[in-house]
Fold these 4 entries.
Entry 1:
Amino acid sequence: MASRRLLKSRGLQERLNAGESILCAEGYLLALSRRGYITHGVWVPEFILEDPAVLKSVHYEMAHAGSDVIEAFQYNTHREKMKQIGREDDIEKINRTALKIAHEVAEEKNLLFAGGISNTNQYVKGETEEKVRAMFEEQVRWSKEEGVDYMIGETFSFLGEAQIALEVIQSFDLPAVVTLTVHGAKGEDGVVRTRDGVPIGEACKDLIDRGVTITGVNCTRGPEMTLELVNNIVQVCPPEKIGALPIAYRTTPKEPSFMDLTDSICPANNPVYPRGMEPFCVSPVEIESFTKSCTSLGMKYLGICCGNSGELTRTMAETMGRKPPASRYLDHTQFGFLMKLKMSGEL
Ligand SMILES: [Zn+2]
């Protein structure tokens, strides 16, 4: 118990100050969709109220694979989405249930416990700021009351909405990881911008100047295209303040977002997003390469978003020099019967 208290007393900021890196497994929405518990469309994780053990099992999977953080699955459990499915009355219950499940696993495994807020799809500059602020406030209040170590604000395509998220989190005196997502391609000037027209590096710098603990990018783009953004961002921001959590699907300069993807091999699969993404899954090798690139830049906060799995998180953890519980299942490829024959030329 004593050692647990000692570890838990070291929060996100203390660990970062000590030069440690943080691995945060995300991607619960698609992980649970793949298991058949979420339907495409409004993407609300209603199952949390009916089948909480299912969510707990995915948290365990990510802890086993090496995540330092258990993030409560509050993605899309905000007021507008709950209203869309006629369950607005359940909003507090679903948030608190998600938080309690994450807290239990984080306590048991001695990991950081994070709450989450995300894009509301309601942000219109000069019109809806107060509505968006109120939506964030209730979710952050419940998270604080349930004992989170810090808050994650993610997938904001407008810097303005990310700024509100940061202000709300700061008003509850919690450390904030606030990451942006970029849907569009480069402009004609070669610069990638937020939807409110701010170059991505400048947007991250703005959040750093406002006191964010970690900013950066998550979701929407695969490792290679996320790395392109990161290389851009670190031109104007200190790498240790930048996080990157790509999707686990390949995207390209021509189709930088998973919403852009087209399947030329199986045209019936178009539009690829959201139901046809499996042919674009990245391999552990690609995650290894991405992780090496980010750590060599000096980045300290990494993870994987949509498409994540225990295998990919384990690969990222091992590439970061960790030996998570899942590493006990060593790579036996070199001992495989058929591989041996193949390598000796007999097959
Ligand atoms: Zn994602």
Entry 2:
Amino acid sequence: MAQRLKQENYDVVVVGGGCAGVAAAVSAAKNGARTLLIEAGSMIGGELITGLPVDGALNARGEWIVGGVLKEILDEHERLGGYIGPVKDWRLIWYVCIDPEIMKVAVSNVVRRHGVHVWMYSFAEDVVMSGNEVSGLVVLNKRQRTLVNSRVYIDCSGDGDLAMLAGAETMVSNDKGEFQPLTMLFRMSGVDSRRLLQFCVDEPQNIAVGESEWMGADLTPRQCAEKLYEQGQPAVFLKGNGPLIQTGIKTGDLKYETALIGIIPVSNERGEVSVNTTRIANVDATDTVKLSEAFGSLVDQVWSCVSFMRKRIPGFENAHFSGLAHRVGIRETRRIVGDYVLTGDDVLNARKREDGIGKGAHHIDIHQDGIKQVRIPVRHGGSYDMPYDMLVARGVKNVYAAGRCMSADREAHGSARVMGPCMAQGEAAGLGSVISIRSNDPGNIRNVPLRQLREGLAAQGAILAGTN
Ligand SMILES: Cc1cc2nc3c(=O)[nH]c(=O)nc-3n(C[C@H](O)[C@H](O)[C@H](O)COP(=O)(O)OP(=O)(O)OC[C@H]3O[C@@H](n4cnc5c(N)ncnc54)[C@H](O)[C@@H]3O)c2cc1C
């Protein structure tokens, strides 16, 4: 087959244009590599453009732990306007609130600024192997099938597609077939933030707060709610087991069970929030038929929640449904097994390491069926280092994996899957690729000198040092 295909050559090829893939491609391109970013969908940016905030960019103490490409994209957003920035949830974390519409432009600007070649509407469907090395990637789009040749490939597909095609070892959640829920995010505009925040002060039994010793554990729920009020942003997590939601379910006003109605500010100008609440657990999202079937049920949940919020949640009486994410949100599918598998122990103990290529700080955060969700904070509100070897797909010479399909056990994945650490991983894989192709054994990613990589990452603004 390979002989019959049109061929194109790049230095670095990244599969998947979510947040990790964007960071990987920008990092490779800004270091001079001719870089191709391949995305099956019609947009790049992934969950950066669905209405979610960026988690894991700051630790629970409020210190930034991810910089580099993420920071460059946030700066571009700030330059374009509408940027809200870091917000404290008084539950567990700081998160960075962004406007998904402006973020679409910011991501595109940064990717083009660094000369990344982007193929959207293009699916990476097969690989050509030469021993244990990927020598070409078969990409299908409307033009035709193209064989894309490169020295290094970075799997940011979220599902480990490339690594799996290359014969690398992969894993799924656990042997019970459990997967974190699919979620359809939506937005509401015209929200009266003050009324919502006053409701939190008046009825704090409905909101999730003070779950970390570093964030409000010494305060009463009402005092935390008062802090939220002072902060002034409509950043509120309504508890799935709180009286408001439970009553809604009993009366039939809310037609599904959930751990939360997460209300996240996205635009102060539009009085708009994003809502993270809908869920269908234990669907293997690599099964496209099941994923597509889930879409309809999730949209029904969205509509039920819109009406529940307008009817029952103070501040939403005059709010309007203003948007649906452009895709179903997928938290967990197939992951690679890397030369190192990040563990829950590494995360919870805030383990530091000399081979760290980026940091994570988000709690172990495993959503489950119905109202269940595991939330375990990192020790002392700190951060952990992610080692280089977790990027390296075991058994293959020239394939990195970064982002949601990273090498991590289920607990560690529950933390490092958020966007801050996913982008730090992508950035490291991007620079690692460039160092590798310039070495005397091009493409052998196991020969990348870690000191050189870490110095290069620090030079482009990545945060690697410090005790945070
Ligand atoms: C509902 C939900 C809520 C979340 N909440 C938060 C939050 O509040 N804050 C936070 O920071 N994180 C949150 N997360 C987690 C985080 O958003 C994701 O884990 C992260 O964005 C994953 O990024 P990624 O680039 O690794 O993967 P993805 O965003 O999944 O990107 C992978 C891309 O690869 C493309 N692709 C897949 N296969 C192929 C192929 N074969 N060929 C070509 N392209 C392909 C896909 O189309 C996709 O665009 C949430 C996730 C979900 C789903």
Entry 3:
Amino acid sequence: MKIETISLHTKVIPLKKPFKTALRTVTSIENVFVFLKLENGIVGIGSAAPTVAITGDSTEGIKDIIKNVLAPLLVNKDIHNLNFLLTAIQNACIGNTSAKAAVEIALYDGYSKLLGLPLYTLLGGKKTLLENDMTVSVDSAENMANEAKKLISEGFSILKIKVGKNGEKDIERILAVRKAVGPSVSLRIDANQGWRAKEAVKIIQSLERQQVNLTLVEQPVDATDIEGLKFVKEHVFTPIMADESLFSTRDAIRLLENKAVDFLNIKLMKTGGIRNALTIASIAQSYNVECMIGSMMEASISVVAAAHVAASHPNITMIDLDAPLWLEDLTVDHHILKEKIILSEDSGIGISHNSLSISV
Ligand SMILES: [Mg+2]
């Protein structure tokens, strides 16, 4: 079954409220949608989220790479050669992981639609109900505590708390949130590279002494500081997770061989798509290191694709896919329902290109 055309569409989606981390403040997002049309009319869809601060990928860069580098490798090729096509995409250029991810998602979606199977079935899994978290932006301790309380009343039982703006204030922020939500709520802390290694140890040890139980601390130090991650991990009891330090399968091996972290956070926009995400989860499994799947500030298509990956891999045990809940326009989302993600039994990722109101 030949791939006939690959077309792109860009969409700006406003956020309901600003999303603030130690790295950036976001008020709207722009996503690039990929439509991969097969000769029988089936359309596979994918999307990419430009995050220059994290991946280096811009909207124009993503469009250019897909149009001029990736699409020519796929047009007129047989989609039944899926693994060979995926390899060609990964080998086509250095970096550009967001563009590669969008095209991979469209390929997997088109292929599973062609076979008439949900993507998670194609990938060999059947966890169709996933427990999601919700993020609290970095803000004053009082505002963060109020927001956390509100989210718990809405049904969330896992919160991701963004910090990394100022060490002393971060302790106050986390203490205020814990006080507001009580002891049973799972708190995942994300410093987004905002601390130095010794500072991170001081902060986390202080929270441990005050018996603020934290499920994990994500990326306490700079992405390139693998020794710093290891230093933090070795000086605290709280599990440490890599996010911005992990893009490729080789990054995963380096982190795991160095015993630098307790957990990995996999995102399709960093790995360059689904196949590397699955490979990283399997590599981590052989080191007994569990994985979370997360996303950038992305529209539903790529986030739902990430949920299919999570549904199919036993070593992805944590879900951080709240991005669509921040958007004014859910881009046809019937899957991500607050604290629960329910994947449909429709073929592919379960989203039809017709529901996007974009002509292909
Ligand atoms: Mg993170």
Entry 4:
Amino acid sequence: MVNSFKGFLQLLKSEKVDGNLAKSSVLRVVCGNEAADFDSVASALTYAFCSYHKDPNNLVIPIINIPKADLRLRKDVVRTLGKLHITEDLLFFTEDLKRYKTRYNSISAVLVDHNEIEIASKDLISNVVGIIDHHKDENLYLDANPRIVKTTGSCSSLVFDFWRKTIFNSNSAKELAMLLMGAALLDTSNFQYKVEEPDLRALKCYEEILPDLDREEYYTQLKTDKANLDGLSVKDILKKDYKEFIFESADEKLVIGIASVGKPLEWLCNQCGSRSEFQQQCIEAQKEHAVNLFAIMTAWQDGHDFKRQILVMSPLKDQPEKIINAVTNDLKLKDFDQLDAKSFKNEHYYFNAFQQLNVAASRKQVVPLLRDAFHYATGK
Ligand SMILES: [Mn+2]
């Protein structure tokens, strides 16, 4: 039995385990969501380690659901893992999941930080055997065990709650608390917003495990790293926190991709040099992801005000307009003319930017609204 967190990941990477796993026809993985933010990474790694601690014969591989090359875009994740001496080569990514697919008859997954298999993983994952999440419950995989879907600021708090005893009993309690607490700090802005009971309960334990940790300092570092876009192109920035969704009705289907960005549209525009270049980059992103509708949601602190914008583009004709009209009230959308989006909008391409005055609604809230609007617009 390996005790340290790093040792566990080394074990998973070792020939011995690889060979043993190969004897079985079913592989078990635990996947975070495709945005692969701190919460997803911390939740998946902790879940895998604790499963091993509880039953060393039943290994679960933690998957970070992005290409390996994109980990560098998440500077907050990279730095904290670095502090725990965990480097990229000890982690498992989308490429690994694809490789496993060719080796195993079936792949069973525990989903953390999401509760529906993502579009890109649909052909890779055979069945869902467990869920721990804090997004809106899609009411799928009702036999999954555990099946915990609760509103919390951070999914990490639910993972902590589920594995509390194992974490306290392990020699890696400090490392795990550091990791999970990092997720909660980012998700709740240092336990100030979106905080729920499980987040506070977890915080109490983290403080018990890490009595000397300067929470404020850790939070400031994480926040700075997360916002640090130095050396990243606009293309990179649009990939840094990106998720896809499928809306389906009886006879229509819409694939939508949403990039979240921590800077205003004007800033992205400046990075590109010109409005037309920015528009070009956006359209390229839409085409590259092969989505019918691509949106950029920006959110940033402007002095004392927290602000949001949303930019929507689509080669579809009427549907985007109908959907946007249906969410205008809820999101308090106001036309945003600074990008001169209207001049770019033509009969072949929908392209429009808005200020979102309902600043409380992040992607987590916006997606269900868009889905309802889609069903309303398609008359179902
Ligand atoms: Mn989360």
